[in-house]
Every structure is written in C-alpha cells, then in structure tokens.
Amino acid sequence: MDFVRNLRRKAAALGKTIVLPESADERMLRAACTLRAEGIAKVVLLGDHARLRAAFGELNLDPADIELLDHTQDPEFASYAAAYHEKRRAKGMTAEIASQTLRDPLFFGAMMVARRRADGMVAGAVSSTGDVLRASFQIIGTSPGTSIVSSCFVMVNPAWPYGENGQIVFGDCAVNPQPNAEQLADIAWATTRTARALCGFEPRVAMLSYSTMGSGTGQDVDKVEAALAILQKRHPELQVDGPLQADAALVPAIGAKKAPDSEVAGKANVLIFPDLDAANIGYKLVQRLAGAEAVGPVMQGLAGAVNDLSRGCSVDDIVNVAAITVLQSEA
Q: How high is the pLDDT of residue 144?
C-alpha cells in the first residue's frame, strides 16, 4: 500500500538506529536484513555473536552491516545497571537485581534508547505486551506532561472521502480499558503527535461519544467534555472538538447540521474513542467491513520510541513497525 511504502521511504531518509532485542526469532533476523537492504534503519541485534552468526548462516542470510551486540559483555553494561539501580532504588531495587534485570534484552534495549545509543526499539514477536511495556516504563518512562502510555492505529483506505488523503487515526485501540478524563486528554494529545509524525497532516481531533454537543447526557459524556476542556486549556492551538458522534465527526453534511459552529465536525482526521471497548471494536469493524488497512498498534506517550508487535507478526510487519518507530523517534 502507498501509505506503508511512504513510511519506509521517509524513514530511510533519516539514518536512524533501531535495536531488536528478540534475536532468537527467525523473523527478526529476516527483518533486520530487510531493514538494512532497504536502508530503512541501522540495526542492532542483541545476542551472542556465535549463535547469531550460526543462525544467519542456517537461513542463508548475510548479516553484513548489522551490528551484533552481546549485551551481557558490553562495556556499558555496568554503567547501565548502575543507572537502573539508581532510578529504581526508592522502589526497593538492589544493585544485584538491577544487574540481573539488565541481562534481559528487553531491558538492555530500552536502556539503549534511554541513553540515545539507539533511536528506537521494536519487540513483541516473542515477548508479551506486558513485558515490553514493563521494560519501557521502568527504563524510559513517559514523556513530559503525559501520564500514560497509549496506542493508535492509522486506518488507511485510499477510496475514502473522509479523513485526510484516505487516512484516519484512531486512539486508543490497544492499551487503556477505561481512561479517565485526564488520561483521555493525554491519549488525544499523544495521538495528534503520532498523526503528524506518520501521516504528515495537521490533526483535526474529534472526541467521540454517543452524544453530539449535548444531545445526550450521562457520566460517559461528562468524561469526554472534561477531557476536551483539559485539552483546550493545555493546547489552545489544537483543532479539537466534542463530544461528537462518529457521523458528525466524519460526514460534512451531518457535521454541519449537528455542530454548525465546529471547526472539526465533518472534517475530523483523528478520532479519540472514549474507552478501549469502543476503540478496539471500531477499528476492527472498519478494517473488516470497510477493507481498510490497519497500521499499528503504534505505541505513544513514552519518552523514547518503542513499539510492540503482535506475536503473530510477519517479517513485513516488523519492518513496517520499525519504520514507524524511526519516524516517531524523529518527532
């Protein structure tokens, strides 16, 4: 799809470095070779040199231009462990536990991102989402002014008259089940940054609800209204409005009728769902019934670029997520 090819092209122009900690998986080795062959990113694979070279040989792959790093023997290992110990000391972390934890490639890879030795990390082909997020939370932390990590999908269908150039960004579809108003505002702000980085357009953000501008009432509507107020106070320059029903957010005629004074209604290209139920159901319906490409989930809200894969991911999925991670690191 043109959108994905464009992601790869833009990433290749930046010369960034991505660390892949799950080198025991064949898909990661193949993805590393593709990333270098297409120039999308420089690649660091964590693991024992002899084992990695043998694995590449068995696959008839050439690891030229791929950095093979045995992190347990790395000269920076002791300083990374000391930094992790200091960061977690107040939570009961000991120096011994810190050193043992840093032997986990996920934690070492996250430390490489935190220390700017790598621009981003991609994992999750083997590890659970919880494990990837745990390492990222503890080592990298959330970005300034953000309370939570969230996710979004870029939904792509070139035939759409809605959104922006056949693209609409949905958040949060994968992480937070019941965000409160403050968290919903953080999700919306993080999603606008992702939209700019990946899609290149200026976000017009609709805070979705079953109510449009007071047509319905209830606690769920109150939450969306509170989140909107937080966003408008923190980011007065942002084009954001709500509560809006999905049709009022996307369809110009309906937006003009239901919310005639809104600068977003009928023109939204970023949709913020009130909870995980709505967002996850929504993106899958659009993917399956509208034939849209669902690019993601894209992690957001961390102080460094890290993305989590599905354990059923393909080599192409890993390459695409690496390209996304490159673009996020630049943003």
A: 86
Cα–Cα nearest to 84, from 147, 143, 136, 19: 136
Amino acid at site 162: Y
Q: Is the Cα dihedral 158, 160, 166, 168 positive or negative?
A: negative
Coil, helix or strand for 277? helix
Query: Is residue 231 within 8 Å of residue 223, measured between CB atoms?
Result: no
Whether the Cβ atoms of residue 195 and residue 169 lie closer than 8 Å to each other: yes
CA gap 289, 160 in Å, rounded: 13
Backbone φ and ψ for 248, nearest 5 degrees, come out as -70, -30
pTM of the model: 0.90
Grouping H, G, I as helix, E, B as strand and the rest as coil, residue 259 is: coil
Q: Let me know whether 291 and 160 are in one domain.
A: yes
- Residues 288, 174, 41, 77, CA torsion sign: negative
Q: What's the average pLDDT block by block, 10 residues per block, for the chain (331 residues)?
A: 90 98 97 98 97 97 96 97 95 96 98 98 95 95 89 96 96 95 97 95 98 92 98 97 98 97 98 97 96 92 94 93 96 80
Residue whose C-alpha is closest to residue 171's, from 193, 138, 146: 193
Token pair 């005629």 is at which residue? 253
Q: Do both 97 and 154 map to the same domain?
A: no
Residues 95 and 123 grouped into a single domain:
yes
